[in-house]
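Progress narrative, Year 2. Work on Protein kinase domain-containing protein from Zooxanthella nutricula advanced from sequence curation to structure prediction during this period.
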Amino acid sequence: MGCAQSELKVVRSVDIQADGVERDAAGCTPTYTGHHASSAGDLDHAGSSQLSNRFSHRRFHEEYVLHHKLGCGAFAAVYCCQPVEGDPQMLAAKVADLRTAGSKGSYDNAAIEVKRHRAMTREVRMLSMVQGNENVIKIAESFVEGGLAYLVMEMCDRTLLQVLERTRVWTEDTIKPIFQGMLKGLVWVHHCGVVHRDVKPDNFMCKGPTDTIKLCDFGLSCELTGSEGVVGINGTPPFMAPEMLKSHRYGPKVDVWSFGVLGYTLVFGHFPYTPVEPNGPAMKAAILAGNPAPTFRQLHSSSRVPVAHQGDRAPSQTCVRFLQDMLCRDPVRRPTSKDALAYDFFRVVACPEANPRDSLRPMLHMAKRCGAFDQPQAAKSEAKTEVDARLRFLQESVRPTPCDVKPQVFSQNSEISTEVGSEGTRMMPTTSKNSKVTCESRQ
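Result:
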């Protein structure tokens, strides 16, 4: 799937609007207008007409042409789209169904599901706050029209897994730029006062000839509004930090922990905390208890038992120390994302303890087996759902004969699939074959 390499501009400020300043259990403000919060009303008691009046009614289909579907979830789907005028680059449009269950079949006067509305406005708000860094996904604009919300973002070329699988020589030194790109994205997000809360391999995409790392999926993100931190258990079980699971207040360092889990898994081939039964509740219990403790050893491909390092199979000591500090259980002693970038692991050009001919590729295979990457879900082949039919109707009513391009709203794309839930988006290769995914991906 191609993607224009020209720089994506923020076309106009975000148009999703909703009044109210109450905060949810996670300490997040769920109601936003572009880059500024609004401050009246109560979403919990707002009727459908009230919510409708708080959104912009600009028409998405007058400005964009939808192409193939990239993926779908319970309440949203992602399509490739293209502006009618201006830069013809391909973008990604997340379309979320905001209607209540009782409003199916109706759009123009549909009642809005408050929880879905909050999730979408929170995602837009968080994305608008963190714009301006090449390692964070860019948002172009957003719309609400007849019970459907549209979030237009830049389209990436490849998933992180695709980049890792296509890298011919994969050693500590070749993975350093990937880790650096991830941390640079986190440094910026934290500088903007946002905690991502779902850092994991599938929430990093890659774009351009140099595979620039892009942090994406801000559906669970939260704004830091003071020095006390936030609360709430959110994310993917194997990547959750101990302080989050203890229901303590926490800050950006939960993302550093999650990054440490990601790095540990790619280097050692297994999660740092792996219970006998590797399911979500057991994973969280192991992280809480700190048992079984991380071994910082690689696995044999034929066994789940860590083995002592032998010869050039051992990761360098600078790499081990780096990951040990990222996984420090005490958040006070754990480095910040900015501190992490200053570690010797990134300063050493070639690790003297590591054999550059040795590859970490077997650990990638093991990481896939243990469930570090979500199992991809291809877009539904029939695809003629109620929402798809509505999108086709809207597009054809606005533009019976599209300019220059033919819409392919219901065609498949074999390279990248995007799994979309009510709270976030994940783009994944549809052709990958993960043999085992053992943990729930959302809580």
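The radius of gyration is 22 Å. The chain has two domains: 43-156+375-428, 158-370.
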